[in-house]
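HUMAN:
Could you generate one sequence with tokenized structure?
ASSISTANT:
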Amino acid sequence: MRHFGLVVAVFATSFALSSVAFVQTSKTNNPQTKQTTAKKQEVRCPVSGKVITDTKNAPKLTYQGKTYYFSCQNCLAEFKKNPQKYIQRASDTRPGGNTTAKKEGGSCCSGKSCCADKKEGDSCCSGKAEAAGKKSCCCDDKNAKPTAQVAADEKLICPVSGEELKVESAVRVVYNGKVYYVGCENCKAQFLKDPATYAKKAESLSKLQGKPEQPAPKETTAAPADKLICPVSAEEIEESSAVRFTYNGKVYYTCCNSCKSKFLKDPETYAKKAESISQLQGRPEADMQ
């Protein structure tokens, strides 16, 4: 009788343990349970949409009683600019209040983040020149218009940095009889290393690039025949007291010897200017004798 009771007790214990194991196995193998657990543990950056695996070291911010985690400091800064924008387009994925952002053409923090080392306002035109065609921070340019659209709008684009320029502040470069514009002296140096390539790229980026160089406008203001004007200082002078000299068979006058020296350093330019501003300048030497 005693042996029979022992057997019954052992059987009952084995049955109870099997039931518990069956219940645990059923819970573990339940796909819905796994999915729910994984969903609760998933934390995403509300700006970039990137999954954050290390919430302890990730940047975070508590806003309106909820804690949000971010992929990088740049995403945190973007969130602070307009938190409602990212909250409205996100959905809560954990009780802590972190959100899942809708991706728009990829994350600014995917791969190696250009935002990590870039200082605000940096470009190839501040400090050393960067490689041709390098874009600024992807977080800043996520909504930038494509190059084709910029060219269609006839905006001026630097062929080296890709930045939008203003004609009045851009650096002017003349190549092969055409005028091109770049953002800075560093870009100009880069342009001149391979002008054919950058000239072609500039014209494909903007209709304002590569226009023919216009000759300098001629000076049309001419003094009366009885007025003698120095071509260097532009002062009116008296023939009797002016410095007289001959160049290329013609007679010219300056107000002083210093102006004469400047004249003779670039005689072609000053001779042409002298004749345009006074009919008494550039008369043939033979007629003066």
Q: What stands out?
A: The longest helix spans residues 2-28. The radius of gyration is 39 Å.
